[in-house]
Amino acid sequence: MKGAITREFFPSVQNRLAVKLNVSPNVRTIMNGHEIIRSYLHRLKMIGSPECPYKHGTQTVDQLIFQCKRLKNEREILKKSVLKAGNWPVSKS
To answer: Taking residues 72-85, what's their average pLDDT?
Structure first.
């Protein structure tokens, strides 16, 4: 299962390299689907609830990338980078 979420966004290394992204450690973590994702921590029984602390539903990779209000600025930066490559709106494939 390693890299499954990242592969949804970048099926190949060539796809990833075609998009010039300045990816922060937090974005890398989100795209890996580990460590800070509440649904992941809940599945490992490390926390009691998978819910977003800001009451925006279950915190998942998709919720963080596409919906989280706290990440609006980062989403806009990502969107601009992807637009330069002509790939917005993004799809997981």
So the answer is: 76
Angle at 8 between CA 7 and CA 12, to 5 degrees: 40
Tell whether the torsion through CA atoms of 16, 60, 90 and 68 is positive or negative: negative
Q: Which residues contact 4 (CB under 8 A, 6 or more apart)?
A: 33
Q: Is 0.85 topped by the overall pTM? A: no
Q: Name the one residue in this structure whose structure tokens are 């989100």.
A: 30
CA distance 8 to 19: 15
Question: How far apart (Å, rounded) are the C-alpha atoms in residues 54 and 68?
Answer: 9
- Torsion angle of the four alpha carbons 74, 80, 86, 89, in this order, in degrees rounded to the nearest 10: 50
The string over 4-15, giving b where at least 16 C-beta atoms fall within 10 Å of a residue's C-beta and e elsewhere, is ebeeebbeeeee
pLDDT in tens, 55-67: 888 988 888 888 8
